[in-house]
Amino acid sequence: MKAADLASRIDHTLLRVEATGADLERHCRQAIDLGFRAVCVHPARLRRAAEILAGSSVRLCGVVAFPHGATTLLSKVFEALEAWKAGASELDVVLDLSAIGSGERAHVEEEVRTIMEKTPECAHKFIVETGLFTARQLEPVLQVMNQRRPAYVKTSTGVNGPGATPETVAFLRGKLHASIGVKAAGGIRTLAQAAALLDAGAACLGTSAGEDLIREAERTG
């Protein structure tokens, strides 16, 4: 894969809690210069990121209930609306992980439906944290996704348990409707990892190592 093609599949992520304003500025400028698909940041960083990215083709993504998903639905809706008002066109939403593990399909469905209905202007990526659950536990969640058809299902936060693997990406790709993309995230540090995840069916990658991946792609041709 050419470096430019890889860049167009990367959500350039800056979710370090200690990241400074200068880090945010540099991160957004990198996204513009290298042609990344999107920039993904915490809610408090969205307005400034939107200002920097204005006029570029780089999308802006805000996280919701990151990283544990353990807030109320009302809180998630408020956070999603705030992110949209701040300039986000995409939302990476951490689902209620306890509900997934407990088999509470109705609760998961309510979260997905409500957030999508309240922020119809945004593309939604729902994080299911594949590294924490069995295929049997994930099946009801993926049925909800096929019913509601968000833009993406995302493998992981990169914080809770293992990140994306080609096997989990292939599992999601095989279970989801063709219109739903798979976003792989968590621990993507090398070009070989990125290529394996894309080959397994990932539509895009979430990583904080985007610049390193592009430089590696440029070196290897």
Describe the structure.
This protein has 221 residues and is α/β, with parallel strands linked by helices. It has one domain: Aldolase class I (TIM Barrel). The chain contains ten helices and eight strands. Strands 1-2-3-4-5-6-7-8 form an eight-stranded parallel barrel, surrounded by five helices. The longest helix has 14 residues, at 21-34. It is globular and about 45 Å long. The relative contact order is 0.15.
Which descriptors would you attach to this protein?
single chain; 221 residues; alpha/beta; TIM Barrel; eight-stranded parallel barrel; 47% helix
Write the layout of secondary structure elements.
Elements lengths: L2 H5 L2 E5 L6 H14 L3 E4 L4 H8 L5 E6 L8 H13 L4 E5 L2 H6 L2 H14 L4 E5 L7 H14 L3 E3 L11 H10 L5 E5 L5 H9 L4 E4 L2 H11 L1
In CATH, the topology is named: TIM Barrel
The helicity comes to: 40-55%
Tally of individual helices: 10
Name the helix and strand elements from N-terminus to C-terminus, one letter apiece.
HEHEHEHEHHEHEHEHEH
What is the alpha-carbon Rg in Å?
16 Å
Taken together, the total number of domains comes to: 1
**Annotation, overall tally of beta strands:** 8
Outline: globular
Mean pLDDT: 97
- Report the span from N to C terminus: 8 Å
- Look at the structure and name the CATH superfamily: Aldolase class I
Question: What is the correct CATH architecture?
Answer: Alpha-Beta Barrel
Would you identify the regions where 5 or more consecutive residues have pLDDT less than 50?
A: none
Strand order of the largest sheet: 1-2-3-4-5-6-7-8
Bin the strand percentage. Answer: 15-25%
Structural class: alpha/beta
CATH class: Alpha Beta
